[in-house]
Amino acid sequence: MARIEGAQRPRLGHGSRTKEGEAQKGVFRQAHQNPQNAIHNTVTDKQKEKGLSAPRRICGSPRGLCVSHCLRFPHWKSRGSRFLGRPSQELVTGGPPRGMTRRAVAKYLASRHICQAIRTVEVPSRPCVIKDHDKHMSSNFHEGHRTNIIAFEVSKASLTVHSLPDDQQVTIPNTAPAVRRLLKAKTKGSNPFVICEASGGYERHVLNCAVEVGLPAHRAHGTRTRNFAKFLGLSAKTDAVDARMLALFAAKSVDLRLWQPPAPETAELRGLRRRRDDLAQMIRIEQNRLEHPQIKHVERSLKRHVRAMSNEIKELDTQIAALVAATPEFRQKSGLLTSVIGVGPKTAAACLAYLPELGSLTKGEAASIVGLAPHAQDSRTLKGRRRISGGRREVRSSLYMAALTALRLDPAMQAFAHRLKERGRPAKVVITAIMRKLAVILNAVLKTGKPARRAHPA
Questions:
Q1: Cα separations (Å) of 387 from 271, 297, 369?
Q2: Residues 234, 148 share a domain
Q3: Lower Cβ count inside 10 Å, N or C end of the chain?
């Protein structure tokens, strides 16, 4: 049973003057007078009518307080059997959110993992709901299976490894042989769950070795883990603290999607497309420098560099087209995607490279995963402006150009844009709405396997 070190007597709230409250306060005094052998055997008449039984044990140490005992106190009661107050900050790390029933509070407290490394806060920040739509995630790995966890805090040269339930840490080099040796040593007689954060590619040894050994692995979203640390009340940030936080994140989170290595064709297409995007960005940078030339030699160098990178982009476009044509799955999907007005081979290649989930999502998921879903910013009477955020910017930038083309050639999109403008929507909002509609259409086309119904331009 979970205990909280340094627990003190809670301030009694609603119902403290009732007979039930007075009886329970007496039991609380008895428990702290003799904490080693305190047994809660007193049950009031109201508790008997509700079928409630007393917990067998209240305290296990002079400084500890069992969470099941806290539920018997009027502090956890209020009108309508709802939780409306908070205990003192020594009792619960963070505390349950308001509006929970007593049964929900009991399940909440029973599942909390209290440790001395986590400071208690009275009103913590709640983590944001971030969906883990990773490019290489597969089926969910349920919470009940995660009893043995290996968390990796990734850096360029080393890995800080924290394991549960033994609560031990070790630092190893960030190399494939070192990770493989550690995982094989940890898998003797058990099947641990591996977790690490996305770290710009430096986590590849952890994920590949975990799949090679046959262990379930999850690549966590950095924003989601940082909000989880804030929820726990962690203000310090070191490799050791982050490794333990990742282990707790894996133990407490549900519906973590398992990482699976991409197919070789998908990995090759993504690498070629990413290199093309990098070159296109560098060309824009050099062209901006050409607007203010001061020395002829510098101007000639910039033009020479732009010509060289443009030739590289042409060569990459040829390789991408050849790869799409040589792969049956890519060829079929590309034909379906390009049937939508405004979507060309380059946008289709970007969707195939960066959005392999397309065709298996709902309308809302298709918009959210690209970062085109407007999020509300409302509070009571305040109606904030909806904004898009997150998502995969590579696909979003390709859909922007596709939306401009569709607005110029597709009569249905032109009518849709006209309706939005009549309602007073700005031009950028209209373009964003068309991008969102294109993402939903592309997902539906791949899901049904039927080309889009083209409308002849007027």
A1: 31, 45, 15
A2: yes
A3: C
Between these two residues, 114 and 273, which has the higher pLDDT value? 273
Q: Cα separations (Å) of 7 from 12, 67, 97, 125?
A: 15, 10, 20, 22
**What is the reported pLDDT for 102?**
61
Domain that holds residue 306: 263-326
State yes or no: cis peptide before 165, omega within 30 of 0. yes
pLDDT band for 254, please (50, 70, 90 cuts): confident
> 58 near 38, Cβ under 8 Å?
yes
Asked whether residue 2 is domain-assigned, the answer is: no
Residue 130 lies in a domain: no
Report the greatest alpha carbon distance in the chain. Answer: 95
User: Are 199 and 276 found together in one domain?
Assistant: no
3-state secondary structure the chain: CCECCCCCCCCCCCCCCCHHHHHHHHHHHHHHHCHHHCCCCCCCHHHHHCCCCCCCCCCCCCCCCEHHHHCCCHHHCCHHHECCCCCCCCCCCCCCCCCCEHHHHHHHHHCCCCCCCCCCCCCCCCCCCCCCCCCCEEEEECHHHCCCEEEEEECCCEEEEEEECCCEEEEEECCHHHHHHHHHHHCCCCCCEEEEECCCCCCHHHHHHHHHHCCCEEEECHHHHHHHHHHHCCCCCCHHHHHHHHHHHHHHCCCEEEECCCCHHHHHHHHHHHHHHHHHHHHHHHHHHCCCCCCHHHHHHHHHHHHHHHHHHHHHHHHHHHHHHHCHHHHHHHHHHCCCCCCCHHHHHHHHHHCCCCCCCCHHHHHHHHCCCCECCEECCEECCCECCCCCHHHHHHHHHHHHHHHHHCHHHHHHHHHHHHCCCCHHHHHHHHHHHHHHHHHHHHHHCCCCCCCCCC
* Predicted pLDDT of residue 19: 47
Instruction: Render pLDDT for 173-190 as a digit per residue (tens, 0 to 9).
Output: 999 999 999 999 988 878
The answer to whether residue 202 sits within a structural domain is yes
CATH number of the domain to which 240 belongs: 3.30.420.40
pLDDT at res. 330: 96
Query: Cα separation of 162 and 123, whole Å?
Result: 28
Give residue 110's pLDDT band: very low, low, confident or very high (50, 70, 90).
low
Residues 333 and 458 in one domain: yes
Residues 272 and 306 in one domain: yes
Asked if the structure places residue 211 within a domain, the reply is: yes
Give the separation between CA 292 and CA 178, rounded to whole angstroms.
51
* Token digits of residue 41: 């055997």
Domains held by the chain: number: 4
Confidence of residue 294 (pLDDT cuts 50, 70, 90): confident
